[in-house]
Structures are given as structure tokens and as C-alpha cells.
């Protein structure tokens, strides 16, 4: 595994820096630089060992970064597999741009919840169980997505 190899390399580099620092006199100007490099190496080693940023206990990575992402695929949306929509809607270039801007303004979760709600007709509870969210959270995401869509149009 490449992380274990990098950990060994970083640990070896840290030991070499510490040995170099011990060889210098305490008042040598490079002491400060070496101390900073050793501190940075220790920080990187902690990060690689734990898999998350050191010192962050309630950060975003704890809640969502390592959670398995919910990917929208064509199996969930059969209409995406069709060559043409059942009832094609003609959009002007401006309307198309506004729709794209509305979708881009949504967060990943808002977009996932909104698309499942609007295209599949799933309930908040069904979406919540599929995404691992509460019904109330899904409702909030859908409402935020709707308001962003209204603002863009």
C-alpha cells in the first residue's frame, strides 16, 4: 500500500532532520528552519496515519468526506437512457443557461435530493434512506434546491 511506503519515507526524513538539528549549535540560524520542517513532517505523518486532518475534531471531513458518495447513475434514472425525452421541452439559450446556473448553484446533496424528488418522484423518507439522511434533512435540501432554481430563473 502506497501510504505505508510514504509513512516510512516521511519517518526516515523526520529522523534525518532531527539528527541534523542535533548537530547544529542551539543558536545556529538554521535551528528555526529545521524545527519548522520537523513539525511539518510530524503533521503530515499524523495525517497519513489517521486519514484526517490533525487537530480537527468536528470538521466537515468527519461528517461527509469519508462517507461513501451517492452517485447518480442511469440505473436510477431510466429516463437518462432514452434517446429523446417523452415530451421534449424547447428551451431558449437563455433558459438553458439559467437552468444550468441553477444546477451549478446547488450543492451535491441538494442536487441529489432534488433530482431524486423531481425526476423519480421519491418521497423524502425514501430519499433519506437511500442517501443515509433524515427525512427532515432531505426536505431542507429539496427546499433549498427549489429556491436556488427559482432565483436563477
TrEMBL record:
InterPro entries per the UniProt record, alphabetical: RNA_pol_sigma-70_dom, RNA_pol_sigma70_r4_t2, RNA_pol_sigma_r3/r4-like, Tscrpt_reg_LuxR_C, WH-like_DNA-bd_sf
A Pfam family assignment: Sigma70_r4_2
Matches recorded under CDD domains: Sigma70_r4 (cd06171)
GO molecular function: DNA binding; sigma factor activity
GO biological process: DNA-templated transcription initiation
Entry-linked SUPFAM superfamilies: Sigma3 and sigma4 domains of RNA polymerase sigma factors
Residue ranges annotated for the HTH luxR-type domain, each copy included: 121-148
Gene3D superfamilies: Winged helix-like DNA-binding domain superfamily/Winged helix DNA-binding domain
Signal peptide: none
Alphabetized NCBIfam families for the sequence: sigma70-ECF (TIGR02937)
Protein's recorded name: Sigma-70 family RNA polymerase sigma factor
Amino acid at each position: 500500500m502506497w501510504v505505508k511506503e510514504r509513512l516510512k519515507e516521511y519517518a526516515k526524513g523526520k529522523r534525518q532532520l532531527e539528527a541534523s538539528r542535533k548537530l547544529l549549535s542551539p543558536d545556529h540560524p538554521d535551528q528555526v528552519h529545521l524545527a519548522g520542517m520537523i513539525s511539518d513532517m510530524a503533521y503530515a505523518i499524523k495525517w497519513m496515519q489517521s486519514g484526517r486532518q490533525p487537530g480537527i475534531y468536528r470538521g466537515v471531513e468527519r461528517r461527509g468526506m469519508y462517507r461513501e458518495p451517492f452517485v447518480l447513475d442511469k440505473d436510477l434514472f431510466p429516463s437518462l437512457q432514452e434517446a429523446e425525452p417523452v415530451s421534449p421541452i424547447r428551451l431558449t439559450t437563455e433558459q438553458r443557461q439559467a437552468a444550468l446556473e441553477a444546477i451549478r448553484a446547488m450543492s451535491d446533496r441538494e442536487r441529489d435530493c432534488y433530482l431524486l424528488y423531481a425526476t423519480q418522484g421519491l418521497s423524502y423518507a425514501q430519499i433519506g434512506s437511500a442517501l443515509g439522511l433524515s427525512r427532515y434533512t432531505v426536505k431542507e435540501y429539496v427546499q433549498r434546491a427549489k429556491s436556488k432554481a427559482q432565483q436563477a430563473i
